[in-house]
Amino acid sequence: MSAEVIYGSELAQSLRDEMKEEVNGLRNKGIIPGLTVVLIGEDPASKSYVRGKQKASDYVGVDSELIELPESTTQEELLSLIDTLNNKDSVHGILVQLPLPAQIDEEVIIEAISPEKDVDGFHPISIGRMMTGKDTFYPCTPYGIIQMMKSKNISLEGKHAVVLGRSNIVGKPVGQLLLSENATVTYCHSRTKNMEQYIASADILIVAVGKAHFLNGDHIKEGAIVIDVGVNRIEDGSLTGDVDFDSAKEKASYITPVPKGVGPMTITMLMHNTIKSAKKTNGLL
Question: Which helix (H) or strand (E) holds 108?
């Protein structure tokens, strides 16, 4: 048995084509979805992510503005900028690219963004709405993961989903979204005892630990669905996931690759949230 590979890159392109049509329709009504991305410093990975977001925005027709600030930017300066953007009608989504320099408190910045423009889905109000099943902007990577499984008509109801990792960006929210789909969710992390037992019992494995080839085919149950969120650069310069793809795909029923897996869906869900914000602001939702 060899797993069916879920290519997030293909699904992302299909969704972006649909979004492009939708944005054309909105523009014909005079509604132009606007996203402002704030990038502080010269971090190469952050710059790469931002380029990907700009490329996606251009493709679907979202009006994307990039504000680049020096590494020395103070917290007060950034808060002042966010306040301006919160009050700017043409801006429907605000994204401050993480990580931030040491002198800036990420939590303070995330909480300063208006929940109505929180297209990253990180604001405590957005998280609270998600936890209680209310309409909100879902964090982009977890939301993309759910869409990938739904695209293959994978039923999540009643399945045992094991989430490896408990970050606020991926681990915690993806577990919550799985719970909303009526899966039974177990979180595993660095302090979990007998982790192998949980992994071996999982119908769905979401792996987000940030360690190359943390998991291989020997660990997983026959027919498990394996979603690899990790992106690790190894010695030869290539990118690989948290899962040893070649061995895991021999036992899994579905698996995501790295690259071309979860990554492209993250940016696509950011576009979705920005378009949704523009529609809500204009009374279309």
Answer: helix 106-112
Residues in the chain: 285
Is residue 253 a known part of a binding site? no
Q: What is the mean pLDDT of the chain?
A: 96
167 is in an annotated binding site: yes
Number of C-alpha atoms within 13 angstroms, CB side, residue 113? Answer: 28
Domain that holds residue 44: 30-114
Is beta strand 232-233 parallel, antiparallel or unpaired with respect to 184-188?
A: unpaired
Cα separations in angstroms, 1 against 168, 228, 249, 250, 252? 35, 19, 8, 6, 8
Domains in the chain, number: 2
In tens, the pLDDT along 165-177 reads 999 999 999 999 9
230 known ligand binder:
no
Q: How large is the greatest C-alpha to C-alpha distance in the chain, in angstroms? A: 57
243, 215 Cβ separation under 8 angstroms: yes
Q: Is 17 a catalytic residue?
A: no
Average pLDDT over residues 63-81: 98
Same domain, 161 and 224: yes
Which residue of the set 63, 118, 120, 242 is catalytic? 120
**Residue range 253-269: average pLDDT?**
97
Q: List, in sequence order, every residue forming a beta bridge with 31; answer none if it has no partner.
A: none
| Residue 2 neighbours by CB under 8 Å, 6+ apart | 249, 250
Query: Does residue 138 sit in helix, strand or coil?
Result: coil
Q: Is 120 a catalytic residue?
A: yes
The yes-or-no answer on residue 29 being catalytic is no
Q: What is the pLDDT of residues 136-188, one digit of tens each?
A: 999 999 999 999 999 999 999 999 999 999 999 999 999 999 999 999 999 99
Indicate if 157 and 240 belong to the same structural domain. Answer: yes
- The Cα–Cα gap between 243 and 9 comes to 18
